[in-house]
Amino acid sequence: MSRLLSVLIVIAFIVLGSAWWFSQPRMDSTGKYHVALYDEADGTWDAQMQILPARPQDRLGQTVGSSTMLRMEWQKPEQTYNNFLITYTDPVSGATIKESGEHDRVSLDPSGLAPDTEYVFTIQACFDPRCTSWLVAQDEYRGRTAPEYWSDESEPVLLNP
Questions:
Q1: Could you tell me which residues come within 8 angstroms of residue 117 by beta carbon, excluding any fewer than 6 positions away?
Q2: DSSP label of 139
Q3: Can you list the domains of the chain with their CATH numbers?
């Protein structure tokens, strides 16, 4: 009888320990905006993402990009993956957009963004077409669209000073 009780106690510890282990977040999402992407990821990689101005031009002696576009460039992970998924959010409004693409791409030019607005970006490398398993970039990245400008035949004018 005591042997059976010992076996049952060991089994109970295994079950409870496994339940606790699998309920813990897989990644450290501390300080991240897109917490769920980190909590549910299978791992991370250093994407070295750069958020750059799109279509840079000289305005009022400064180089500025499009007020509604940004340029994103990143490094692919070493692991083989199916596609990427980029999530970007305007933290003020909470508006979130997701864009996906083929695994061999290393850049994206999101458009339709609000002028003079900061966005938080993260990228996932998805192991399957439905992105049920993924790596996530170890860092989130921030980028700001340029202010909106107007120009006639004379000098350009900043619309929202």
A1: 90, 92, 144, 145
A2: S
A3: 27-149 (2.60.40.10)
118-126 and 83-89 as β-strands: parallel, antiparallel, unpaired? antiparallel
pLDDT above 90 coverage of the chain, percent: 61
SS3 content of the chain, % helix, strand, coil (to 5): 15, 35, 50
Q: What is the DSSP string of 75-115?
A: PPPSS--SEEEEEEE-TTT--EEEEEEETT--EE---SPPT
Q: Is the dihedral of CA 79, 80, 81, 84 positive or negative?
A: positive
pLDDT at 87 over 70: yes
Structure pTM? 0.74
User: Which is nearest to 83 in space by CA: 53, 54, 105?
Assistant: 105
Q: How far apart are CA 46 and CA 88, in angstroms?
A: 18
- Which residue type does 84 have? F
**CA geometry: angle at 146 spanning 145 and 152, to 5°?**
140
Per residue in 33-59, pLDDT (tens digit) is 999 999 999 999 999 999 998 888 777
| 25 has a pLDDT exceeding 50 | no
Instruction: Read off the amino acid at residue 157.
Output: V
